[in-house]
Hints:
Elements: H1 6-16, E1 41-42, E2 44-46, E3 49-51, E4 55-61, E5 66-73, H2 76-94, H3 99-115, H4 117-128, H5 132-153, H6 157-160, E6 166-168, E7 171-175, H7 181-194, E8 198-202, H8 209-220, E9 228-230, H9 235-243, E10 249-253, H10 256-266, E11 272-276, E12 282-285, H11 291-303, E13 315-319, H12 323-335, H13 355-370, E14 374-377, E15 392-395, H14 402-405, E16 412-418, H15 421-429, E17 436-440, H16 444-453, E18 458-461, E19 473-474, E20 480-481, E21 483-484, E22 494-496
Parallel strand pairs: 1-5, 7-8, 7-10, 8-9, 10-11, 12-13, 12-17, 13-16, 15-16, 17-18
Antiparallel strand pairs: 2-3, 4-5, 6-22, 11-20, 14-15, 19-21
Bound molecules: 1,4-dihydronicotinamide adenine dinucleotide (NAI) and magnesium ion.
Amino acid sequence: MTTKTQEEKASTRDMAGLLFGDLWDYAPAPESTEHVRYAQRYGHFINGQFVDGKDYFPTINPATEEVIAEFAAADEAEVDRAVQAARNAYDGVWSKMKPAERAKYIYRIGRLIQEKARELSILETMDGGKPIRESRDVDVPLVAAHFLYYAGWADKLQYAFPGARVSSLGVAGQVIPWNFPLLMAAWKVAPALAAGNTVVLKPAETTPLTAMKLAEICQEADLPPGVVNIVNGAGRTGAAIVNHPQIDKVAFTGSTDVGKIIQRAIAGTHKRLTLELGGKGANIIFEDAAIDQAVEGIIQGIFFNQGHVCCAGSRLLVQESVVDEVVQKLRIRMESLRVGDPLDKNTDIGAINSRAQLEKIHELVQSGVDEGAKLYQSSCSLPERGFFYRPSVFTEVAQSHRIAQEEIFGPVLSVLTFRTPEEAMKKANNTPYGLSAGIWSDKGSKLFSVAGAIRAGVVWGNTYNQFDPASPFGGYKESGFGREGGLHGLKPYLEVR
Ligand code: NAI
Ligand code: MG
């Protein structure tokens, strides 16, 4: 840690109007990694077995830049083996099994995740950089909840869509990102299995570790071989899954650019598609909101998971009459955020997932400065090694600035103002994206009328970044289409007639 002098700390304190800041430090409280088990090298998980790969690449811990393990990058032939295994398991076992039997396996996976929650949280934090507090309290519990929720639907599909006949699709090819590695795997695998499909999943290249643990859990749950196959690799491997002729359904979460490539690649084929892409969520603060709670919601909206959240509240829209108060309270609260070792239980903001992502954040922040917005960054000290970024907020932002339009995917907030609810709605919708929004107001009627006018898949009222397996999630416009979670999330994995 670069340590600050008492004088520097005192000046921070004056600026923020804060009485303690980081004048006193917490004692380190790192989570122990001694009991976690992982291999030095992973190939792929195909037909119920761990198999060797050909070419290997490392995954690092972004907080230390140390190599954790090596992972294989699957080529077309290896992807083909995984798809054949999934096909055979679908035709021979899974599609023929009684739905109540399928449910038992999915429950078992959910229970095993609960049993191994601590190990999974630590590995997720090591590989991806998110604070242990979040992987332990948010990611992993939601992963288990997702499997348990969809297990419940597996033998009730005819009640899920009354009056319709439903059947599974076949083999699902699923490609996921690095911001919620195990949670995105659960969002993909659980509904696919519950609907009676088999899967070939590819984790992101910077965060493949917990997917291999999920493979171990599938083995331990005695899941029939080939029902879940996991291949490692980067974009080329993802493309090989998407383009494989025997894939019946493609599910992708990631960047809008890759989403567009996928949509073009499978146009005109029989493949079904759901895309969950980027976002530039508006978090709208009305003057009648409970300001202190709203400030907590702003912090939660943009700094959760270092801002690597597709539904992050990255555009703050504040009613002009309260903007000074909100920004001042926000800065004070930002000063108290602890940035550092993700394994430390007191850490609020962990490591940026990769060097490439850190560079992207630097580049976009520079564009904000160049275009004339005013940057304020927390004065916290950053670890000397690893990829870290200070909590940042831009004021005096114009709609046309890149920082108001593009997804930064980091701990950087852009503040804009509005005068009337109509202006707030217009500004909120002035984006190519449409994934999420938040509204803070004391007036229920205002909350509902603004929520109804916003073209976003998820709108939170007086809260932000809340998730539940029963609640559907997904986008409008360039944020993608299709829903995950709830009954809505089952439908893309079913033929509903
Ligand atoms: P990406 O979209 O390239 O990566 C997501 C997944 O897609 C990874 O598993 C990757 O291996 C795979 N992939 C890459 N190219 C592919 C292709 N041609 N066909 C099939 N699969 C492919 O995202 P990246 O490059 O890691 O991040 C770039 C930006 O995208 C971020 O800065 C962020 O703004 C945004 N992003 C948004 C996410 C979201 O949840 N909305 C998640 C990840 C990134
Ligand atoms: Mg990693």
